[in-house]
Amino acid sequence: MTLAAKPTLQIDNDRVRVTEWRFAPGAATGWHRHEMDYVVVPMLDGKLRLVEPEGTREVDLKAGVPYTRKAGVEHDVINANTYEYAFIEVELKE
Question: N or C: which terminal CB in the chain sees fewer CB atoms within 10 Å?
Answer without folding.
Answer: N
